[in-house]
UniProtKB/TrEMBL annotation, chains A, B:
<dbReference type="InterPro" id="IPR011008">
    <property type="entry name" value="Dimeric_a/b-barrel"/>
</dbReference>
<dbReference type="GO" id="GO:0004497">
    <property type="term" value="F:monooxygenase activity"/>
</dbReference>
<dbReference type="InterPro" id="IPR007138">
    <property type="entry name" value="ABM_dom"/>
</dbReference>
<keyword id="KW-0503">Monooxygenase</keyword>
<keyword id="KW-0560">Oxidoreductase</keyword>
<feature type="domain" description="ABM">
    <location>
        <begin position="15"/>
        <end position="80"/>
    </location>
</feature>
<dbReference type="Pfam" id="PF03992">
    <property type="entry name" value="ABM"/>
</dbReference>
<dbReference type="InterPro" id="IPR052936">
    <property type="entry name" value="Jasmonate_Hydroxylase-like"/>
</dbReference>
<protein>
    <submittedName>
        <fullName>Heme-degrading monooxygenase HmoA</fullName>
    </submittedName>
</protein>
Amino acid sequence: MKDIHEAAYAVIFTSQRREGGDGYAEAAARMVDLVQQQPGFVGVRSARGADGLGITVSYWDSLEAIAAWRAQVEHAATRERGRADWYAHYELQVVKLERAYRWTF
Amino acid sequence: MKDIHEAAYAVIFTSQRREGGDGYAEAAARMVDLVQQQPGFVGVRSARGADGLGITVSYWDSLEAIAAWRAQVEHAATRERGRADWYAHYELQVVKLERAYRWTF
């Protein structure tokens, strides 16, 4: 996989899980597998706290690559399940990387 | 507080906690209080999973506001403690918000 530092854009996905909802872990793992196959995908990092608030940041080569992932059929179907079963609310922000600094990452 | 959607820039702070390290929770809470007083601060969201990987996204009006927070004296001192005591590694990305979408957030 490329280094995240080579990415030009990112998507910040902030979500609040509802209690329960079958199939979430399997679907989340499947999305992580599937996204690796997308042209222009660079990497992903994710954290979810005990309060159910999660932040996932995916990194991309281009806005076109982000749009293609958004349109991916299985991903779109999983998004529908997310709204129906798993999330109380969520938000996506498409951002352009301006600069980065890391300490031993 | 302003709505996060009014922000122009964000900082994605991704960090891996080490085990232990006294004073972390207090310092983190103090930084959340302190940042609210910074001109140009819009909001912040944070998640840390059981594996110790955390993602905090802070939202800002301008690059100048981000630079001023970086230079804030107490914040800078706390960063030093972070490297010494609390984090195995961390990374900062300054990003420009291009567009956003939310579902019932």
